[in-house]
C-alpha cells in the first residue's frame, strides 16, 4: 500500500512541475522569440511587407542614389540591402547612416564568393571556387571561409551569398564556370560544407546557390531563361545532393535560380524562382528546408522577362520565397503584395512565416543589439598578412600537373640548359618570367610570328609556353591561332605548357607532343610566382583537376611532382 501511495505522490509532483508556469518549455518564450514577436506585433502591414525586400545599393554612386535608398528605408521599412560596387570605408559609413534611420535594423548582404574584392576595392581576394576545387585539403577551404566571414563581419555584412554549389558539368557554362568547385558532386559538397562552416563559425550567414542547380546550362540567366533538361531523378541524385548535405549542417540560406526546369515545373517557361512546386513543394516540402529562402536578383532577364516589376515580386512571394532580392521597383512591389493580402490571396500566416523568419535571422546576427561599424583601421584590418599566407597555401595546393614526361621539369640551373619563354594570351606575365629568371637561363622571345619563332628556337634546349589570360574568370578555349602555335612548336621542341586560366582553356589543345603541362588556374602575381617555383623544383604540385578536360584528363586527375 505504501508503494502505491509513493507512486501516486511522485506522479502528482511530476504533473505539478510539468504544468507549472515555471516550466520554460511550455510557458515562457526564449529571448529570440520574444524579440521577434515584439517587433512583429508593433509593425503596420506596410512595414511587415517591407521586410521582405533586400534592395541593391552601391557605395560609389551619387547623392541621388543614397537619397533613394534612405527614402525606401524611412517610408517603406525595407528589410535589408545588398551592397555592390564601391569601397570598404564608403560602404561602412553608408551602412551606419542607413542603420541609423531604420526602424528595424537592416540585414546587410553581399556577393563575396571569393572575398569582399568581388565587389569592393582595397579588399582581399581569394581564389575562385574552381581553383579551390583542385585542393585536396578541405580544412584549407574552411580557413578561407572563416577569413571571408571575418572580413564580412568587420564590415557590417551579415550575409554572404555564397557558396556557389552548382555542379559545373557543362564546360561551356557562361555564368557559373569557375564560380563552381567543379563537376564532382562529392568534392563540390565537401568544399561547400567546409566553406560554410568556416564562415558561419564567424557569425556570418551563408547562402547556398543557385537552387535547384545552374551547373549544366549554356545560357546566362542574367540575359535569358536557361533550360535544365535533366529528369527529376537525375536532379535529385546530382544537382540537389549538395543542398541535402548542407541542410544537415545548418546552412542559413538558399538562393533560388531563374531556370526553366520542365521535369520539376510543368508550366512552360515558368522560372524556378516563381514556381510554387519548386520552392514550396520541393525545397520546403520534400527537402524540409527550414532556413531563409532568397530569390536570385529579380532584375535578371531570366525572371524579369516573365512578369512586370511588382507582379514578379508578388509571384515570387506566392511561390514560397522569404526574401525578394534586387527588386526593380520596391514601392510598387510592396503595394502589390499589400493588395494581394487585402484580397485574401496571401494569408496572415503566410506573411508572418517569412517576416518572422527574417526577423529571426536578424536576431541571429545580433541586430537586436546593433553597433555602428568602426571605420578606424578598417582597410588595414581587412588586408593583414594572414590573407597573403592563406592565398599562398591555397594556390600552392591547387596547381596541377597533367604531364611531366621524362621529368622535363624541374629544370636545374646546374645543367646550363638554354630555355626559351613564349607568352600567349592577353594577360600580364612579368612575375612568371621574373621568377623563372631567378633560377635558370631563360630568354623571352614572345611576340614573334610562328615562322620566326621556329627559326630562333633551334638554338634552345627547351621551351616554356605560358598562357596568360587577362580575365581568368572566363572559361573559353584557347584561341585556335594560339592552339596551332603551341601544337606546331611542340612537334619540334621540348615544351612545358603552363595555363594561367581554368583547365577548360586547354580543352581543345592536343597534348600528344607536349612533354609538360601545368594548370595554374589563375593569372595572379602569386600564381605566377608559385608556378615558376614548380618548374624550378622549389615546390611540388599536389593539385587535382576539379573538372574534366577529356576522358584521359578527367576530374580528380593530377600528378604529384618532385
CATH topology of the largest domain: TIM Barrel
Strand content: 5-15%
Q: What is the name of the CATH class of the largest domain?
A: Alpha Beta
Q: Cα-atom Rg, whole angstroms?
A: 27 Å
Poorly predicted runs are 1-28
- Name the CATH homologous superfamily of the largest domain: Glycoside hydrolase, family 3, N-terminal domain
Shape: elongated
Give me the secondary-structure category: alpha/beta
Q: End-to-end span in angstroms?
A: 84 Å
Task: Please tell me the total number of domains.
Answer: 2
Number of strands: 14
If classified by CATH, what would the architecture of the largest domain be?
Answer: Alpha-Beta Barrel
Query: Strand arrangement, largest sheet?
Result: 7-6-5-4-3-2-1-8
Largest sheet entry = 8 strands, parallel
Total DSSP helices: 22
Helix content: 40-55%
User: On the 0-100 scale, what is the average pLDDT?
Assistant: 93
Question: How do the helices and strands line up, and which of them pair or pack?
Answer:
Layout: H1 2-18, H2 24-27, H3 31-41, H4 45-50, E1 53-57, H5 63-76, E2 80-83, H6 88-101, E3 107-110, H7 129-132, H8 138-154, E4 159-160, H9 185-200, E5 205-211, H10 232-237, H11 241-248, E6 253-256, H12 276-286, E7 292-295, H13 301-304, H14 311-319, E8 324-325, H15 330-342, H16 348-364, H17 378-381, H18 385-398, E9 400-404, E10 419-424, H19 430-437, E11 442-444, H20 450-456, E12 462-468, H21 480-492, E13 494-500, E14 516-519, H22 525-535
Parallel strand pairs: 1-2, 1-8, 2-3, 3-4, 4-5, 5-6, 6-7, 10-11, 10-12, 12-13, 13-14
Antiparallel strand pairs: 9-14
Helix pairs in contact: 3-16, 8-9, 8-18, 9-11, 14-15, 18-22, 19-22
